[in-house]
């Protein structure tokens, strides 16, 4: 007998698949112990007695099914498990059937890859505590300036923007963007590079940025959307994605031109914790206050990108994992080195950023490491 309880792995997977449709088997580690999750999926590929509560109806069914090989291996709901969705939420079943075209999936590489990118972001949002279920979120509108989005952080999937039919935008805007994260005081456009350099669609992403900005104004009272979350498995690949966007014919559509802040978020538990930090109200000032003394913070604008001056050393906080600011910092350091000013530089970072920063900064700045757990505790 499998009792589906809120917060259990089975419950999480059911919620995730009710929205995503399918997720890559290689990303199940986002939900906890990879060994435990994979064993659970394998077990529930066979028929089991399932019920949501001690008094609930018992269903004898398979819950999951897997198919494909290597990076294409995917986890989906078994058709016999669809009645279980009614136990999640009154709107879960109807949403799933619409999003999955009545439980019909394409085996094409492009379609599976797109679904996997979306599924990974949804899994990250779920584990970070964001409301991600479209059937539990208020629908975005474009008729009046209202506070529609929840007060708590939430994730809206890009494919559902089309149901909004804002200004009859064409579908090309959704070629790369995965969705949008709203949090108190801000909004992020969300992208997922996974393991490869993302080919930037300049015109399409320009339209996507326009759409998200408009939706943020109508539904969250925001003036602009100038930040993006760039998810992936490798920060070096994410950095190359930014440089790749420099090749677009429309320079104003480059990643770092559309979004002033581009935060790299790793597809693992560190990334989940980072999303929690980046969706706190006024998170940036709170992070800087937690790391630096008030007399270390510069007053006004400096000659380059930095956040503090400590014993004559100019220090950048990379605790926001902002690749755009890091690029500007590196450019400033190079200029100062060429001019032989004698100034010293440093970067505050997390343990998982050290290897990447050492390679990118080429030893021109010292590193001070802060554990994410310690920073999170300081922010509470």
Secondary structure class reads: alpha/beta
What's the story with the biggest beta sheet?
5 strands, mixed
Number of domains: 3
**Percentage of β-strand residues:** 15-25%
Number of helices: 13
What is the quaternary state of this protein?
A: single chain
Q: Which strands sit side by side, in order, in the main sheet?
A: 7-8-9-10-11
Uncertain parts:
none
Helix content: 25-40%
Order of helices and strands: EHEHEEEEHHEHEEHEHHEHHEEHEHEH
Would you count the extended β strands for me? 15
Estimate the global geometry from the Cα principal axes: elongated
Mean pLDDT: 90
Q: In angstroms, what separates the terminal alpha carbons?
A: 40 Å
Rg from C-alpha positions? 22 Å
Walkthrough of the structure:
The chain has three domains: 2-105, Orthogonal Bundle (Arc Repressor Mutant, subunit A); 126-281, no CATH class; 285-379, no CATH class. The chain has 13 helices and 15 strands. The protein has helices at residues 9-20, 34-43, 92-99, 109-127, 158-161, 202-220, 235-244, 255-258, 269-278, 283-291, 323-338, 354-361, 372-379, and strands at residues 2-3, 22-24, 48-51, 59-61, 64-67, 74-77, 154-157, 179-183, 186-192, 227-232, 261-266, 308-310, 313-317, 344-349, 366-369. The strands form four sheets. Strands 7-8-9-10-11 form a five-stranded mixed beta sheet, with helices on both faces. Strand 14, helix 12 (354-361) and strand 15 form a beta-alpha-beta unit. Helix 1 (9-20) packs across helix 3 (92-99). The model has no long low-confidence stretch (mean pLDDT 90).
